[in-house]
Amino acid sequence: TPVASLAEATLLSVTLWKVFFILVIVTGVICWLFVLAHESRVVAEEESRRQTRLLTEEIVAHERTDQALQQAKEQAEAANGAKSRYLTGISHELRSPLNAILGYAQLMENDDSVPPHRKEALGVIRRSGEYLADLIEGLLDISKIEAGRLDLHRDQVRIGLLMEQLVTMFRLQAEEKGLAFDYHCPHPLPELVTTDEKRLRQILINLLSNAIKYTDQGSVSLTLRYRSQVAEFTVRDTGEGIAAENIERIFRPFERIRNPGQSRTGTGLGLTITRLLTEIMGGDISVESEPGEGSVFKVSLMLSSLHSASPRSISTPARRIYGYHGARRKILLVDDDDSHRQVIRAMLSPLGFEISDTGNAMTVPERVEQERPNLILLDVSMPGKSGWEVLAELREMKYNLPVVMVSADANEGHHSAEAPRLHDGYIIKPVRLNLLLDTIGRVMGLDWRFEKSPEPLAALPLPASGALELPAREHCEALADLARIGHRKGLLEALHSLQYAGDASDAFVQEITKFTNDFQFEKILELLEVAEHEAS
Fold first, then answer.
1. Which residues are listed as membrane-spanning (predicted)?
2. Which of 41, 360, 452, 493 has the fewest CB atoms found within 10 Å of its own CB?
3. With 0-12 CB in 10 A as exposed, 13-18 as middle and 19+ as buried, what is 383?
4. Whole-angstrom distance, CA of residue 19 vs CA of residue 342
């Protein structure tokens, strides 16, 4: 029917429109998705290009930084090389005059015509000069330690004698500044220990020097405790003190803590070297300090004992050499420094050596041919030809006599690789007399003539008080007070005054002076206490 046909047509039309709209919607969604995908791809590509550009810029920046670091490293290495050359040069220049000072101090100290009280002063000059020489070497030690090129030696050290030398040197320094200086050793000390004597001395000198330098009033004390092969050195002062935040700074190279209104001299290397040496020697260093309360430095080191001794005994000093057995030996001294040749000649001539010298390295082979010496002392650094070149020339000429190299250059590595197989000994200026004689005796096989060895000080018998004419009781009490505090200089001055005034016999003054010079304060107290008991 027409109505049914119209209804079907209408339904079909509506359905087609619905399908059309659905297709339009689906097509629109698909087109939108394509548009979004395209936009996302464009954005992603742009972001990728941006990130690539940033990464490239960062790589370029890193390359520039690496180049700058390399340049800075090269500049630092060049500066460090210049510093090393400068320190080596100035070390050489300082050692040469020090050699003359120490050489003549040693000669005068061994001169029997010099009064004992002058010998004491000369000993202080010598030890202070040795300290200055060690200080010069300290300037080179930092670089050696950091480069791992510092060698330690296993020396047999008379620890008691070493402590006496340090106490004598620093007690005088403290007294000059108006400070009290005390030394305590509550435990028995072995006669000999194994350690690097030079480095141990350097550590203690650095600590004691700083303690006296930074203390204006009060006292400085050194305490040595030795137990179970471990030595603990404690340096205590009543000085300025150190704030907690500055304790780590004092161990940095060239760091110096400055307080307002105070100026202290120094290089800022002492404590740096001290800590590095302590650690290399397998020890430990600690600090306790409060501003205004002073400081306490403790160093613990393993010092293996070789022989036990009485707690109050003092190591027997080395016997003095006055000659040698056998025929007279000839020594050729080669050095361009006139003062050095004069010092060495003055050291060796009294012992019976025939000394000839020259300042011209070029003439050495000719002099050897003419004089036929038994030993050559050969300076390393000379104009025209170095000592190593002279040595190589002598060996090529088949001269096999002993040759000992002498140098003011602390850097022993400057000689050629062949040199260690050619020379027989190496000595650093300033020359120490004992080391020089030990080296000469070793390379020449000498049998030395020694002065008669003195008895160990600890074995000296205490004289009976009745055998001495004692001064008045008040004088004995004054001497006892000085002995209790270990005031060596005060005791010597008091004894001199008593002798000058005629209040004490010469025998009494000589006996007490002997104990005083040997740091036997307990013996003095024992003698005076016995005298007081007998008088009462």
1. 16-37
2. 452
3. exposed
4. 125
Amino acid at 276: L
Do both 177 and 294 map to the same domain? yes
Identity (one letter) of the amino acid at 62?
A: H
| Residue 164 belongs to domain spanning | 152-256+267-308
Looking at the fold, whether 526 and 424 belong to one and the same domain comes out as no
Other CB atoms within 10 Å distance of the CB of residue 526: 15
Nearest-angstrom CA–CA distance, 3 and 18? 23
Same domain, 443 and 382: yes
pLDDT in tens, 157-195: 888 888 888 888 888 888 888 899 999 988 788 888 999
How does pLDDT run across 43-89, given as a tens digit for each residue?
Answer: 888 888 899 999 999 999 999 999 889 888 888 777 766 766 666 66
Helix and strand numbers, DSSP H then E, in the chain? 13, 15
- Compute the radius of gyration of the chain from its Cα atoms: 40
Task: Cis check for the bond before 430: say yes or no (omega within 30 of 0).
Answer: yes
Among residues 517, 433, 412, 536, the alpha carbon closest in space to that of 477 is found at 536
226 and 367 housed in the same domain: no
Buried b (16+ CB within 10 A) or exposed e, 431-459: bbbeebbbbbeebbebebeeeeeeeebbe
Domain boundary among 308, 335, 369: 308
Q: What's the whole-model pTM score?
A: 0.48
